[in-house]
């Protein structure tokens, strides 16, 4: 995974800022592609294998294995960690780092093995076990996630807001101080983390969000060139608005407005753009984030992004979906906070 790049150049005048972040997972894709190819070698019955995973190749890693076989045949799997499964589609979690020899067998109607193939799956370590809190803030509400936690054991986390256990749903919060605690089952016991944050009234604008989307897709349709800063290049398909990415974008804009920072890494919970996307339940192949602060209008902020090379590459990038959030909080340094979150699903 390429580490997110954080840039905060001044744009035009004081109190106008833009920033970007991007991440993709090509190493995991190559790993799974190599494994899938190996699991189709030496076959006497024509079949295909497809694999997908939920992250960047680090434990705990959820892998979905799918085999397409002719009618009358069955599939058996050996995951390489002492466990196995059966069926055309199986899901398995590798809780620890290591190199696993995965085996697939195709059986005929009498249960005879007619084809066997093996391949290696390399799972990297995520470091020491830890509990993390990821806040998806909104206007008068919060969703809490354990995205970013590392636990090398199965189990169901618990989430408490102000001492009351809640689920992944949105929790309404009044203005003032609040405390969140997460508890995650680990290999040696319960991992716990708590943090406090302050809620305050926030404003926004549905028309502004819609206009940012329109201007962004107009730039893509007209083939904006990030080098020459002119239209006329290859047209790109429009980005589709996604409600889960909207949650990630709102968490970032609201976090900056409430905690007074301007960075892709949250000063509230330490979350990165990818962690916030994860917290919504999405598992995209790649994602990126543009942020800005201080711009007065959708036209001004989109123009700022388009004239900044890194932000422009995100807008004109190989993405299919977008989330948007414009948040206002009078009395703060920048008053207006803007976020775009991009994803390729």
Automatic annotation (TrEMBL):
Residues 77-128 form the PKD domain. InterPro entries: CAP_dom (IPR014044), CAP_sf (IPR035940), Ig-like_fold (IPR013783), PKD/Chitinase_dom (IPR022409), PKD_dom (IPR000601), PKD_dom_sf (IPR035986). Transmembrane segments: none annotated. SMART domains: PKD. It comes from the Bacteria. Coiled coil: none annotated. This is Alkaline phosphatase.
């Amino acid at each position: 995974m390429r580490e997110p790049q954080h840039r905060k150049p001044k744009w035009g005048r004081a109190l106008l800022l833009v920033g970007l972040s991007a991440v993709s997972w090509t190493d995991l894709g190559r790993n799974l592609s190599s494994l899938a190819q190996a699991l189709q070698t030496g076959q006497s019955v024509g079949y295909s294998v497809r694999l997908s995973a939920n992250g960047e190749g680090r434990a705990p890693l959820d892998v979905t294995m799918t085999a397409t076989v002719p009618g009358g045949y069955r599939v058996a799997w050996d995951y390489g960690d002492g466990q196995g499964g059966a069926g055309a589609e199986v899901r398995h979690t590798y809780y620890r780092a290591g190199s696993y020899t995965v085996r697939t067998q195709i059986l005929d109607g009498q249960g005879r093995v007619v084809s066997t193939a093996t391949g290696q799956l390399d799972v990297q370590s995520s470091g020491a076990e830890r509990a993390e809190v990821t806040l998806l803030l909104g206007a008068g509400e919060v969703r809490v996630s354990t995205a970013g936690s590392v636990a090398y054991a199965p189990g169901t986390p618990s989430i408490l807001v102000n001492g009351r256990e809640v689920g992944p749903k949105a929790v309404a919060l009044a203005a003032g101080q609040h405390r969140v605690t997460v508890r995650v089952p680990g290999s040696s016991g319960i991992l716990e983390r708590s943090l406090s944050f302050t809620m305050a009234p926030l404003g926004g604008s549905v028309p502004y969000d819609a206009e940012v989307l329109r201007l962004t897709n107009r730039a893509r349709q007209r083939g904006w060139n990030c080098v020459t800063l002119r239209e006329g290049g290859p047209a790109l398909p429009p980005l589709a608005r996604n409600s889960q990415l909207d949650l990630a974008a709102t968490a970032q804009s609201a976090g900056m407005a409430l905690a007074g920072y301007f960075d892709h890494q949250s000063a509230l919970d330490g979350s990165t753009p990818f962690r916030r996307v994860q917290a919504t339940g999405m598992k995209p192949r790649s994602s990126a984030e543009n942020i800005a602060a201080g711009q007065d209008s959708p036209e001004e902020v989109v123009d700022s992004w388009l004239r900044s090379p890194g932000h422009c590459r995100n807008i004109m990038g190989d993405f299919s979906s977008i989330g948007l959030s414009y948040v206002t909080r009078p009395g703060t340094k920048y008053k207006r906070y803007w976020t775009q979150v991009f994803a390729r699903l």
